[in-house]
């Protein structure tokens, strides 16, 4: 259950950015997660609902964009979308491939509520 | 991975990276790796190790696969030639560090409580408890777990994943994140292969290749020092490659 540790780190990053922007609250946090990052979406979402308490993101929504494992073959050069446990070339079957997508663990963007000057 | 800045934006995912997810003036595009604080500390650990000429090897596996036994046998075989230190990660107890210290090798025990993995901050604390000038190789024995440790860079130079023959030869397929990241896969307890009819080392290697991983798959039996040659040869060349670099 390392998703909780990842959420705490995510919220630290998000709060630091929100403060820099003078935000009153974080409305949503968008992340891109590949299945080869080792992070499970449902666990991340559940951990987020706990970890956000007491932060600027206390009412924030976590938006998760899943990326598909995609490899480029070193032998034939083709690019193919593959399954997470079998990263071989979909065209020629060679296992010597490079992962071009699927291991991402990114904080993509934040929606911030910017404080009013007259408050 | 991008070779310029170390980020994970590639030609395959730059489209999603550049895509604004929401309209509106309050949206701030960030595009930063999660675990940035851990990765920063890991880079710091690696610099610190490099400055002292220490090669760090992260040992990962499920509990009971024989990480500590492999270390004990490695110390017995290479202790005279390589100055070895160990950071032990466990939920509780000093047992593993005590086993290592009994061989005259410095060992720092990190107890994580309920945490299922080591992170770069914990390893940083461990580094400060060791005299790095007196070491050639530092083994970090991660918490026994085939899932969580794979997501955290510690500052190591090499990842080694252990797989014991009693666990099943399809573990690389079941835990692709862990086995994809391994620079070497060590099959342990191979002296039991004769009595196990359901573990095929070649099938295990096949599943590692299907993860596009060229890592050597090395058969060992730590209780029989004669069956460590492949592993010790890999270790010698790994240390030599870093020392040259």
Describe what you observe in this structure.
With 119 residues, chain A is an alpha+beta fold. Chain A has helices at 3-20, 41-51; strands spanning 23-33, 61-66, 70-73, 79-81, 97-101, 105-114. In chain A, the strands form 2 sheets. Chain A has a 3-stranded mixed sheet with strand order 2-1-6. A 3-stranded antiparallel sheet of chain A has the order 4-3-5, with no helix packed on it. The longest helix of chain A is centred in the first third of the chain and has 18 residues, at 3-20. Chain A is elongated, with a radius of gyration of 18 Å. In chain B, 34% of the residues lie in helices and 18% in strands. Chain B has 245 residues and is of the alpha/beta class. In chain B, helix 8 (201-209) links the parallel strand 7 (184-188) and strand 8. A 7-stranded parallel sheet of chain B has the order 4-3-5-2-6-7-8, with helices on both faces. Residues 1-7 and 17-25 of chain B have low confidence and may be disordered. At the A-B interface, helix 1, strand 1, strand 3, strand 5 and strand 6 of A face strand 1, helix 2 and helix 7 of B.
């Amino acid at each position: 259950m390392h998703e909780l540790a990842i959420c705490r780190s995510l919220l630290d990053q998000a709060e630091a950015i929100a403060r820099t922007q003078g935000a009153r609250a974080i409305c949503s946090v968008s992340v891109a997660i590949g299945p080869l990052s080792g992070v499970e979406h449902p666990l991340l979402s559940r951990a987020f609902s706990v970890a956000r308490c007491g932060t600027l993101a206390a009412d924030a929504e976590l938006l998760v964009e899943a990326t598909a494992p995609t490899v480029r073959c070193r032998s034939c050069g083709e690019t193919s979308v593959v399954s997470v446990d079998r990263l071989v070339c979909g065209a020629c079957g060679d296992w010597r491939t490079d992962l071009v997508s699927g291991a991402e663990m990114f904080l993509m963007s934040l929606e911030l509520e910017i404080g009013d000057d007259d408050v | 991975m991008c070779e310029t800045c170390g980020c994970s934006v590639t030609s395959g995912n730059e489209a999603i990276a550049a895509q604004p997810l929401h309209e509106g003036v309050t949206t701030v595009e960030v595009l930063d790796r999660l675990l940035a604080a851990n990765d920063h500390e890991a880079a710091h650990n690696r610099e610190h190790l490099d400055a002292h000429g220490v090669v760090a090897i992260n040992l990962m596996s499920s509990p009971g696969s024989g990480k500590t036994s492999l270390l004990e046998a490695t110390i017995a075989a290479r202790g005279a030639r390589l100055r070895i230190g160990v950071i032990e990660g466990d939920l509780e107890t000093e047992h593993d560090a005590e086993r290592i210290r009994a061989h005259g090798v410095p060992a720092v025990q990190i107890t994580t409580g309920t945490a299922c993995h080591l992170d770069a901050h914990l390893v940083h604390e461990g580094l400060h408890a060791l005299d790095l000038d007196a070491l050639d190789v530092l083994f970090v024995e991660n918490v026994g777990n085939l899932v969580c440790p794979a997501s955290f860079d510690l500052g190591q130079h090499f990842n080694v994943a252990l797989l014991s023959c009693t666990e099943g030869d399809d573990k690389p397929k079941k835990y692709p994140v862990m086995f994809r990241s391994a620079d070497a896969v060590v099959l342990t307890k191979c002296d039991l292969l004769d009595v196990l009819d359901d573990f095929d080392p070649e099938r295990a290697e096949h599943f590692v290749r299907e993860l596009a991983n060229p890592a050597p798959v090395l058969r060992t039996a730590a209780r029989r020092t004669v069956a460590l040659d492949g592993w010790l040869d890999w270790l010698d060349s790994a240390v030599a490659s870093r020392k040259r670099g």
